[in-house]
From TrEMBL, chain A:
Species in which this protein is naturally found: Terrilactibacillus tamarindi
GO BP term, pick one: carbohydrate transport
Signal peptide: none
NCBIfam families: PRK11650.1
Name of the protein this chain belongs to: sn-glycerol-3-phosphate ABC transporter ATP-binding protein UgpC
Keywords, sorted A to Z: ATP-binding, Cell membrane, Membrane, Nucleotide-binding, Translocase, Transport
InterPro entries assigned: AAA+_ATPase, ABC_transporter-like_ATP-bd, ABC_transporter-like_CS, ABC_transpr_MalK-like, ABC_transpr_MalK/UgpC-like, Mo/tungstate-bd_C_term_dom, NA-bd_OB-fold, P-loop_NTPase
Lineage, broadest ranks: Bacteria, Bacillati, Bacillota, Bacilli, Bacillales
Listed GO CC annotations: ATP-binding cassette (ABC) transporter complex, substrate-binding subunit-containing
Example of a GO MF term: ABC-type transporter activity
Domain ABC transporter: 4-236
Name of the encoding gene: ugpC
Source superkingdom: Bacteria
TrEMBL record, chain B:
Gene Ontology annotations of biological process type: transmembrane transport
Localisation: Cell membrane
Protein name: ABC transporter permease subunit
Species of provenance: Terrilactibacillus tamarindi
Pfam families given in the database record: BPD_transp_1 (PF00528)
Annotated family: Belongs to the binding-protein-dependent transport system permease family.
Transmembrane segments annotated in the record for this chain: 7-29, 70-94, 101-119, 131-151, 176-201, 235-255
Length: 375, 270, 313
């Protein structure tokens, strides 16, 4: 089995504060695609390198396949790793680069060639076997690094921002490619990225890390719908979640954002107090005539972005800039005054002090509808 | 495991450091010994008396030769930085016909050893009346292929956009060179400066040829004379001379080692 | 502006145009020449002219002032190759190159590998290892002269401790060249070490990490990553050491004066004596030409045979 377990793992350099990684526990299941995401400097690469054995673990236990692995050398851990800069040997050609690890492990010539051929066909590298890395494009280099991980046939693969040096189009392509390969081999994948799109689209589960501490672990869609705190809420999703302070009055069951904007909603678990609320741009709707159940408000547009299929526009709510996303093409101009409707069911409420989620009622979107389509 | 590995590494490092540094330590120790101690082959002097140093300064105009060396090294360093950076600038920022050829010509001079041109150069310097003058010790070394090459490699890392932007702003080549290229390249100028200072201070054959009177000798030649005069008996005095002559360059090296290592590397291989 | 078309306006004197355009066209090269002028003058006077002058002089007999008197064709060269002294000096030079160059490179590589380990206080060791770069030929030679001193020197005291009889290092024809070589290797180490250490630090760390995940050990990494990646640096340092070895002078002048029995009479020292002690510029120039050709050939051979094994990125 190839699950990876981290138990109260910490990292600090020397004996000095601060912690790079602080008291982190998680179990990554065998065969799972697990994404670690966070802003730069959050410790995600360090964590990956600790799993790889390239950095010492200061405190805590690392288990691989159920066995304590803290003091295993990198090679004993039976992992493969794809580096951000690919770490291709500039003096070796593509073939030698790919089978470098197999040579080290003294794998027979026939087996080597077989794996090489297989991986190269999968990744369209067959024509480049005799080229040096410098003669390859960025995308091809990336695929060589990937092929190197594949031929090792290690049950666990670590990737450190492998797509960050590619252009947007290629990145989208490689996302699905990597996912496909991972499924095909049933590899346990631990994938580090700062790109929340990669995190959302690739992972079975993801872990959001900030300043060395876990913010949330879960399925991407659950995290999107129920962000555990304001950090996760603003980190995941683009354009990011709109947020501002609001006062909840328990007796009138009213959530007051300002004098013009009040939402009537029952939040029985919440006391009367000031909270931070969050609402994703896609839950700000076009007001529907004859619907008394919606909260509409007039806003002044101050910025418009026409994306073709969607239109983003911004307006001021209290001291915050909010963004709304409407389907289709809307030819607004800054200064236009329009009506919008807020979807009260989609509002997330965070505690003002701890910034933790205290209420969210989003059901997985179109849950019922989806069942109908699938049938 | 790790501790054992680390410990043994330290042992090896210390042993090798002692071995490599031994000649310098040895010279230092002998420089304090009396003639009798030297003859008996002691390794550690009984007392650290400065008699040998005083004798060394009295035996020869050693102080004068030290000043000569210092001035010659500083002048050569400044001259080389100016001449080489001008040339390197032309090779990087001015596009002109024949640039490739001229650069090749410059680099090819690296293949010509200085010794190969020493006879005509001696005659030239003689004709110019530079014998026993600083001019003979400095000017021939202002232009070097190595310096030009090193600075060119660094100048090439300056973004072209910087040059284009300054042209849009109406800066001429000379202003761009003085106001942008030189300040931006401070590190590689320092590297070249350190290297040039060391090699000039330590040069031997050329100063031996073009200086004939005591007043214009450099420290290296002073050392040669000290050794010739005191040879058989006064080893302590000679070693004092060695220490005096080696201290300035050792200091420059210790202070500038990081610069030198990085800068020379960039010039050599990139 | 000069851009106006003279045929359409007719106002601009047509004579002026070609002159101005030529001036404009060659503007970059004018500026370039200004920047290059100091170097060009100095190179012409102190590098290119002497090179041709030396070749010219090598075909002449010269008088006491060093001026050519009688054209003798290749006589200077023929005489040199018939002279046992000169052949001995070529042999000594090649032996010296053989003793010093490989040893310097191998030892400095070893030092650099050691000093590239991540340890506390490693900077101190790096400084010590580089220290000989800060010691001049003269200072080093005088120091080693004393170390080699048969009665007072520390070397003989050390070997006598092990029961080996005293060796007259610099006066014994068997040992003199080796003694000079040891001094030279020590002098070379500082520079070679610094350059190779710089080369090591330029190697991307992730290559080692990647291979350690594959399970490559220290020596496997050394053979398959470090040495190939370092090969341009090693090649550079080999070439530089080679050229330097051919040009050795100061050590000989101070340590042995070319003796004993000419065993350490390296070529540059022979040239020095012929030119500036005997004032025979014609003969000395012929020796210089031969030295130059030897350096050229050896360097070219090195480029031809060694450079193939160099991996440039």
């Amino acid at each position: 089995m190839s699950e990876v377990e981290l138990l109260s793992v910490s990292k600090l350099y020397g004996n000095k504060q601060p912690y790079i990684i602080k008291n982190l526990s998680v179990t990554i299941e065998s065969g799972e695609f697990f994404v670690i995401v966070g802003p730069s400097g959050c410790g995600k690469s360090t964590l990956l390198r600790m799993i790889a054995g390239l950095e010492d673990i200061s405190e805590g236990v690392l288990r691989i396949g159920g066995e304590m692995a803290n003091h295993w050398s990198p090679s004993q851990r039976d992992i493969s790793m794809v580096f951000q800069n690919y770490a291709l040997y500039p003096h070796l050609n593509v073939r030698e680069n790919i089978i470098f690890g197999l040579r080290v492990k003294k794998i027979s010539h026939e087996e080597r060639e077989k794996r090489l051929l297989e991986a190269c066909e999968m990744l369209n590298l067959t024509d480049y076997l005799n080229r040096k890395p410098r003669e390859l494009s960025g995308g091809q280099r990336q695929r060589v690094a990937l092929a190197r991980a594949i031929v090792s046939q290690s049950p666990i693969c670590l990737m450190d921002e492998p797509l960050s040096n590619l252009d947007a189009k290629l990145r989208a392509h490689m996302r699905s490619e990597i996912r496909k390969i991972q499924r095909q081999f049933g590899t346990t994948m631990i994938y580090v990225t700062h790109d929340q799109v990669e995190a959302m689209t690739m992972g079975d589960r993801m872990m959001i890390l900030n300043q060395g501490e876990i913010q949330q672990i879960g399925r991407p869609i659950d995290i999107y719908n129920h962000p555990a705190n304001t950090f996760v809420a603003s980190f995941i999703g683009s354009p990011q979640m709109n947020m501002c302070e609001a006062y909840y009055d328990g007796t009138s069951q009213e959530l007051r954002i300002n004098n013009d904007l009040k939402l009537t909603m029952a939040l029985p678990k919440l006391k009367t107090s000031t909270y931070i609320i969050g609402l994703r741009p896609e839950y700000i709707h076009i007001p529907q005539p004859n619907n008394s159940n919606q909260t509409t408000v007039q806003v002044v547009i101050n910025h418009v972005e026409l994306l073709g299929n969607d239109t983003l526009f911004s307006f001021q709510v209290n001291d915050q800039q909010w963004t709304a996303k409407w389907n289709g093409q809307w030819l607004f101009e800054p200064g236009d005054k329009i009506s919008i409707a807020l979807d009260a069911d989609a509002i997330c409420v965070f505690d003002k002090g701890t910034r933790q989620l205290v209420h969210s009622s989003i059901k997985q979107d179109h849950d019922e509808l989806q069942k109908g389509v699938l049938a | 495991m790790m501790a054992i590995k680390r410990g043994s590494l330290y042992v090896v490092l210390i042993l090798i450091a002692l071995l490599l540094f031994f000649p310098i330590i040895y010279a230092f120790l002998v420089s304090f010994m009396s003639t009798k101690e030297v003859l008996m082959g002691h390794l550690i002097p009984k007392s650290f008396s400065l008699t040998n140093y005083i004798d060394a300064f009295q035996a020869l105009p050693l102080l004068h030769s030290l000043i000569n060396s210092m001035l010659v090294s500083i002048i050569t360093t400044i001259g080389q930085i100016i001449v080489c950076s001008l040339a390197a600038y032309a090779f990087v920022f001015i596009e002109f016909r024949g640039r490739q050829f001229l650069f090749f010509l410059f680099v090819s001079t690296m293949m010509i050893p200085w010794e190969a041109s020493i006879i005509p150069n001696f005659v030239t310097v003689q004709k110019l009346g530079w014998i026993n003058h600083y001019a003979a010790l400095t000017i021939p070394f202002f232009a070097t292929a190595f310096g030009t090459f090193l600075l060119r490699q660094h100048f090439k890392t300056i973004p072209k956009e910087l040059h284009e932007a300054s042209r849009m702003a109406g800066l001429g080549h000379l202003t761009f060179f003085l106001k942008v290229v030189m300040p931006v390249s401070k590190t590689s100028l320092v590297t070249l400066g350190i290297y040039c200072f060391l090699t000039t201070w330590n040069s031997y054959l050329w100063p031996l040829l073009v200086t004939t009177d005591e007043r214009s000798r450099t420290a290296q030649i002073g050392l040669r004379q000290l050794h010739a005069q005191e040879n058989v008996t006064q080893w302590g005095v000679v070693m004092a001379g060695v220490v005096i002559v080696a201290i300035p360059t050792l200091l420059v090296l210790f202070l500038g080692q990081k610069h030198l290592q990085k800068g020379l590397m960039d010039g050599a291989v990139k | 502006m000069a851009m106006e078309n003279p045929t359409s306006t007719g106002k601009v004197p047509s004579l002026n145009m070609p002159y101005r355009t030529f001036w404009e066209k060659t503007r970059p090269i004018q500026v370039a020449i200004l920047f290059l002028l100091p170097s060009l003058i100095l190179f012409s006077v102190f590098v290119f002219y002497p090179l041709f002058r030396t070749i010219y002089l090598s075909f002449f007999l010269t008088n006491q002032k060093g001026l050519p008197t009688v054209f003798v064709g290749f006589d200077n060269f023929i005489q040199l190759f018939q002279s046992a002294d000169f052949l001995q000096s070529i042999e000594a030079t090649f032996l010296f190159v053989l003793y010093t160059v490989p040893a310097s490179v191998v030892i400095s590589l070893f030092l650099a590998l050691l000093a590239n380990e991540k340890l506390k206080g490693i900077h101190f060791f790096r400084t010590i290892f580089a220290s000989s770069l800060g010691v001049s030929v003269a200072a080093a030679s005088v120091t080693w002269l004393f170390i080699f001193n048969p009665t007072m020197g520390v070397l003989n005291r050390m070997i006598s401790f092990f029961g080996i009889p005293e060796i007259n290092w610099l006066a014994d024809p068997h040992w003199a060249l080796l003694a000079v070589s040891i001094t030279t290797i020590w002098l070379n180490l500082g520079f070679s070490f610094l350059i190779i250490l710089g080369g090591l630090q330029n190697i991307d760390q992730s290559l080692y990490e990647s291979s350690s995940i594959d399970g490559a050990g220290y020596f496997y990494q050394l053979r398959r990553i470090t040495i190939p990646m370092l090969s341009p640096t090693l090649f550079f340092i080999m070439t530089v050491s080679l050229i330097n070895a051919f040009q050795t002078f100061g050590q000989i002048d101070l340590l042995t004066g070319g003796g004993p029995g000419q065993t350490t009479n390296l070529m540059v020292y022979a040239i020095y004596k012929d030119a500036f002690v005997n004032f025979n510029f014609g003969k000395a120039s012929a020796e210089v030409v031969i030295l130059f050709l030897l350096i050229l050939i050896v360097t070219l051979l090195q480029f031809k045979f060694v450079e193939k094994k160099v991996h440039y990125q």
